[in-house]
From TrEMBL, chain A:
This is Aspartate aminotransferase. Transmembrane segments: none annotated. It comes from the Eukaryota. GO terms for biological process: amino acid metabolic process. In eukaryotes there are cytoplasmic, mitochondrial and chloroplastic isozymes. It catalyses: L-aspartate + 2-oxoglutarate = oxaloacetate + L-glutamate. Gene3D superfamilies: Aspartate Aminotransferase, domain 1, Type I PLP-dependent aspartate aminotransferase-like (Major domain). GO terms for cellular component: mitochondrion. GO terms for molecular function: L-aspartate:2-oxoglutarate aminotransferase activity; pyridoxal phosphate binding. Homodimer. Residues 53-418 form the Aminotransferase class I/classII large domain.
TrEMBL record, chain B:
This is Aspartate aminotransferase. It comes from Tetracentron sinense. GO terms for molecular function: L-aspartate:2-oxoglutarate aminotransferase activity; pyridoxal phosphate binding. CDD domains: AAT_like. GO terms for cellular component: mitochondrion. The keyword Amino-acid biosynthesis does not apply. Pfam families: Aminotran_1_2. Its EC number is 2.6.1.1. Belongs to the class-I pyridoxal-phosphate-dependent aminotransferase family. In eukaryotes there are cytoplasmic, mitochondrial and chloroplastic isozymes. It catalyses: L-aspartate + 2-oxoglutarate = oxaloacetate + L-glutamate. Residues 82-449 form the Aminotransferase class I/classII large domain. InterPro entries: Aminotransferase_I/II_large (IPR004839), Asp_trans (IPR000796), NHTrfase_class1_PyrdxlP-BS (IPR004838), PyrdxlP-dep_Trfase (IPR015424), PyrdxlP-dep_Trfase_major (IPR015421), PyrdxlP-dep_Trfase_small (IPR015422).
Length: 425, 457
């Protein structure tokens, strides 16, 4: 068989010039090289740097105090139990029912009536990105005249997602560059000035990239104004547990909106809080009026998933449902999440203290005021470039520092470098 | 729908004042405004308000069940002890059980036990080793395109994901946004391409009269396609018909397509599953690559490595030059990033582990051949049993067709009859998954076919 193929192929190669195949130029000659992804491109550059002092505070993936990636013990244990025991059959289009059930409890509350009443249309998604994309496509299909209001700044990929879904984008004020905190007055103005019934993207906690979250009181006002304006709230919750160390606390914004009766949408990710980055596991949920509507909405979400990937990957989902349905494993997970969050909070304190000890004249309070994985340092792109070129410190050019990449071993070096590039500012 | 809005006690008086103003404003507009002087009167929410329970999606109707996956849903609901699932194309053993290949289990153990492995994000394009070995698997390690470093390969979510990423790329960067798909084809194909923004037309493929290939019709339809159109080709084991062109026919198709500048897009979901030989099943793809032209190829490891639920696949675009391939790869990333950022690591790690280890690779080929052989044996058993039974009709297509599926030729009424009376589940186009059959269940299927053919027309 192989020799017959080889003979045919040789014959084809000889004859092909007669059909002008070789002389035809590429169909793709006009394809432009795409710009590098601003976030993921940072890690690529970091990996290529030979300097022994290099520091990666770019991508938001957790590192321990030795700068090493972490696989949680609860995950290792779950995998030990799973391996060898599962078949690898297709999940349903909507993913693992068990995993979705457990995931909804995290967002909506362990004993949520909404879950009991089956009012939530929910499907397993490809981590946070996949959940946002499913929602964006769904929004386009069923509310084609709608737009999405996105905070300034936000995770860069949010713009890509809604753009590819062909949903027009608007922005709303969020970050106040001078205070390095929340621009609450402008945010509320934007909410009020948006046409009634607008769709808003909200970061549930640990805003990416700024680390600036509204206070509980501010969330209540936002929720109230949303009621007055009849807006739709879509929460992207990628860091539940990572902000304060307590998943219940981190879901407060969502719970406020639920108490106030909003019918929300929500994207959840296990990339960071379970360290399952590469497994691509998350969940998209849409709260509906009743069970019948939830069934209809879920079926439509599945219709969007089918021509995209048919059904979601099972391994990560199995890890999650194993952990969350076993009280001991779940407790272990909660402890491990708190350890990660606490380490980050500790690094914030250390970085700020280091900068103050170096005698920096600038205010660095925002480092400890901000929450979650990222610190929006306030560094300019030029200062960032200096950090990279002179000190081999890698971060995104918007000045976002991934605190997860800061360790007791490099915090001094980092503080010193930041001080160097800002002291003449 | 009107519902009462009660002020939650926790709210501040500022809010009370605002709401009172609102209430007064609304109350004044009615003729019976005498009753609305009380500022604490409850107000009624409008029909469009989302906060009181009216969903912005309240007009959504329930989508119909997916025709293929819906078969398994219906099967699962059936309480009959003799029910038989010949719907979705997932391999089953003689005992009717799903099969995880031994070599896959071994690879998985290695991965999980390796404490140095982490679960970090893969690059957008996926696991590099996986991509390299996948390209070699389909194109052949000695492929001129691979040697020439002009293949862009990205890891995707199985066959579906590979097709979708390829289709999105074509819709953005290719000048002819039109794809021809065979009639019939896998039910999800038209949805994938249409959703990505391509126009979809069909070319004749299956001949119901012969239950074989309508070769003349195929050549005519491709011959009249506009220059530059994309053509979807099933690399082997056509789904749902099991009808494949011969190598000589493939050569004619290749010549026609190249002369008309038609762009081949291969869907390879069954490499190794059709004949039992990975190389033999890849021949059509390799013939096209050998002529130096460009093409796309979507690969799936769902069936041939039994990795269904792990969603492992790859999209390769064979380009004229290395530079073009590099630019193409960069643009593929822009399609992937806003869809799911990067692909899942687990299944691809298993595949890469197996493909790069000679012993494991050989073990895999043996297990793969065993699966293919069992299916071929089921074909023979079914054919022999129908003949022995004297069931009317020519059933030789059962052994002529190849791969996981047989296009029985039964019509949708006959199919419905078989489901209702015999609890046999298959898609309404008469496609049966041979992988779902066993020696024990062949007699039951024969009974059902016999009854359907003689009692339902």
């Amino acid at each position: 068989m192989a020799s017959k193929t080889a003979a045919i192929c040789r014959g084809i190669s000889r004859r092909s010039s007669g059909f002008g195949v070789r002389s035809m130029s590429s169909w793709w000659r006009n394809v432009e090289p795409a710009p590098k992804d601003p976030i993921l491109g940072v890690t690529e550059a970091f990996l290529a740097d030979p300097s022994p002092n290099k520091v990666n505070v770019g991508v938001g993936a957790y590192r321990d105090d030795n700068g090493k990636p972490v696989v949680l013990e609860c995950v290792r244990e779950a995998e030990r139990r799973i391996i060898g025991n599962q078949n690898m059959e297709y999940l349903p289009m909507g993913g693992s029912v068990k995993m979705v059930e457990e995931t909804l409890k995290l967002a909506y509350g362990e004993n949520s009536d909404l879950i009991k009443e089956k009012r939530i249309a929910a499907v397993q998604a490809l981590s946070g990105t996949g959940a946002c994309r499913l929602f964006a496509d769904f929004q386009k299909r069923f509310r084609p005249d709608s737009q999405i209001y996105i905070p300034v700044p936000t995770w860069a990929n949010h713009h890509n997602i809604w753009r590819d879904a062909q949903v027009p984008q608007r922005t709303f004020h969020y970050y106040h560059p001078v205070s390095k905190g929340l621009d609450f007055a402008s945010l509320m103005d934007d909410i009020k000035n948006a046409p009634n019934g607008s769709f808003f993207l909200l970061h549930a906690c640990a805003h990416n990239p700024t680390g600036v979250d509204p206070t509980e009181e501010q969330w209540r006002e936002i929720s109230y104004q949303f009621k007055v304006k009849d807006h739709f709230a879509f929460f992207d919750m990628a860091y539940q547990g990572f902000a304060s160390g307590d998943p219940e606390r981190d879901a407060k914004s969502i719970r406020i909106f639920l108490e106030d009766g909003h019918l929300i949408g929500c994207a959840q990710s296990y990339a960071k809080n379970m360290g399952l980055y590469g497994q691509r596991v998350g969940c998209l949920s849409v709260l509906c009026e009743d069970e019948k509507q939830a069934v209809a909405v879920k079926s439509q979400l599945q219709q969007i998933a089918r021509p995209m990937y048919s059904n979601p990957p099972s391994h990560g989902a199995l890890i999650i449902s194993t952990i969350l349905s076993d009280p001991d494993l779940k407790n272990l997970w909660l402890k491990e999440v708190k350890v990660m969050a606490d380490r980050i909070i500790g690094m914030r304190t250390a970085l700020q203290e280091n900068l103050e000890r170096l005698g920096s004249s600038l205010s660095w309070e925002h480092i400890t005021n901000q929450i979650g994985m990222f610190c929006y340092s306030g560094l300019t792109p030029e200062q960032v470039d200096r950090l990279t070129n002179e000190f081999h410190i890698y971060l995104t050019r918007n000045g976002r520092i991934s605190m997860a990449g800061v360790t007791t071993g490099n915090v001094g070096y980092l503080a010193n470098a930041i001080h160097e590039v800002t002291k003449s500012a | 729908m009107r519902q009462q809005f009660q002020l939650p006690g926790a709210h501040s008086s500022a809010i009370d004042r605002r709401l009172s103003a609102l209430v007064r404003h609304l109350g004044d507009s009615s003729a019976s405004s005498m009753e609305s002087q009380n500022p604490n009167q409850t107000i009624y929410a409008s029909v469009t308000a989302s906060f009181n329970g009216d969903s912005v999606f309240s007009n959504i109707v329930r989508a119909p069940e997916d025709p293929i996956l819906g078969v398994t849903v219906a099967f699962n609901k059936d309480p009959s002890p003799i029910k038989l699932n010949l719907g979705v194309g997932a391999y089953r053993t003689e005992e009717g059980k799903p099969l995880v290949l031994n070599v896959v289990r071994r690879a998985e153990q290695l991965i999980v036990n390796d404490r140095s492995r982490v679960k970090e994000y893969l690059p957008i394009t996926g696991l590099a080793d996986f991509n390299k070995f996948s390209a070699k698997l389909i194109f052949g390690a000695d492929s001129p395109a691979i040697q020439g470093n002009r293949v862009a390969t990205v890891q995707c979510l199985s066959g579906t994901g590979s097709l979708r990423v390829g289709a999105e790329f074509l819709a953005r960067h290719y000048h002819q946004r039109l794809i021809y798909i065979p009639l019939p084809t896998w039910g999800n194909h038209p949805k994938i391409f249409a959703t990505a923004g391509l126009s979809v037309k069909t070319y004749r493929y299956y001949d119901p009269a012969t239950r074989g290939l309508n070769f003349q019709g195929l050549l005519e339809d491709l011959g009249s396609a506009p220059s530059g159109a994309v053509v979807l080709l099933h690399a082997c084991a056509h789904n749902p018909t099991g009808v494949d062109p011969t190598l000589e026919q493939w050569e004619q198709i290749r010549q026609l397509m190249r002369s008309k500048g038609l762009l081949p897009f291969f869907d390879s979901a069954y490499q190794g599953f059709a004949s039992g030989s990975l190389d033999a099943d890849a021949q059509p793809v390799r013939m096209f690559v050998a002529d130096g032209g460009e093409c796309l190829a979507a690969q799936s490891y769902a069936k041939n490595m039994g990795l269904y639920g792990e969603r492992v696949g790859a999209l390769s675009i064979v380009c004229k030059t290395t530079d073009v391939a590099s630019r193409v790869e960069s643009q593929l990333k822009l399609v992937i990033r806003p869809m799911y950022s990067s692909p899942p690591i687990h299944g691809a790690s298993i595949v890469a582990t197996i493909l790069k280890d000679r012993d494991m690779y050989n073990e895999w080929t043996v297990e793969l051949k065993a699966m293919a052989d069992r299916i071929i044996s089921m074909r023979k058993q079914l054919f022999d049993a129908l003949r022995a039974r004297g069931t009317p009709g020519d059933w030789s297509h059962i052994i002529k067709q190849i791969g996981m599926f047989t296009f029985t030729g039964l019509n949708s009424e006959q199919v419905a009859f078989m489901t209702n009376e015999y609890h046999i589940y298959m898609t309404s186009d008469g496609r049966i998954s041979m992988a779902g059959l066993s020696s024990k269940t062949v007699p039951h299927l024969v009974d059902a076919i016999h009854a359907a053919v003689t009692r339902v027309v």
